[in-house]
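Quick question about two entries, pasted in order.
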Amino acid sequence: MKRLILTVLFWAVCVASASAQLVVNPTHVEFTVSADHAVNLPDGSAAVTRYEIRFYASGATQPQQASDLGKPTPDGTGKASVDIASVIIAFPVSPSTQYTAKVAAIGIAGEGVSAAASNPFARVAPPAAPANVTLVRQ
């Protein structure tokens, strides 16, 4: 019985860690659009006017940076994919810090923010360049 419990716990940890893989220098954000994405208000304006991605240091409650994603067209399954390479390039590089992100649907009546944070990611800069390069004959 004890072995069965340990086996179940092992596989649960494996599945959990596989779904939360750390991504280094992500380039795209993928999300399921708001249920109100295509809804129009009585005056004809859109219920969702845009989306915003918010970056958090892991465990933080306040975002470190937010960037406009516009209002992307979802695919047939209701998912949108947005290139964030230009947005995230300005994001601080701290290889020892893991970050997460949330997406907010924003409209005239306010905003709805994703309840769950994204998988963790890290920003890593290229390594420092070698210095004092000299060619010699030995």
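Here is the second entry:
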Amino acid sequence: MGLAGGQTQDLDLIFEALADVTRRSMLDRLRQGPLSITALARPYSMSLNGVSKHIKKLEKAGLVRRHIKGREHLCALDADGIRDAMDWMNHYAEFWGGRIDALENYLAGKEKREEP
């Protein structure tokens, strides 16, 4: 599965964003629906500036969209980026699934040959 340069860069941004436990937690919370930055920041013991840096990383990766409603900034999950990462990972899941199936078949055949 060859990837064009832009696709590789997009996946790099997605996996970099997903590598942080706080950002994964934020995405999990956004599954329930959009949240203001203040509401999104509430459970984390960090400044709003720190939370904002995490949100910007998620936005850059295409995992979060920000909507401005008056003075309030609302963040919403954008699952398209996650879908791209899953498509890439599924390619390798198919590869390993085939390898495991081949190993099971080999072992089953070996057991039959070793029976008295």
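Reply: The chain has one domain: 5-114. The chain has a mean pLDDT of 85. Hope that helps.
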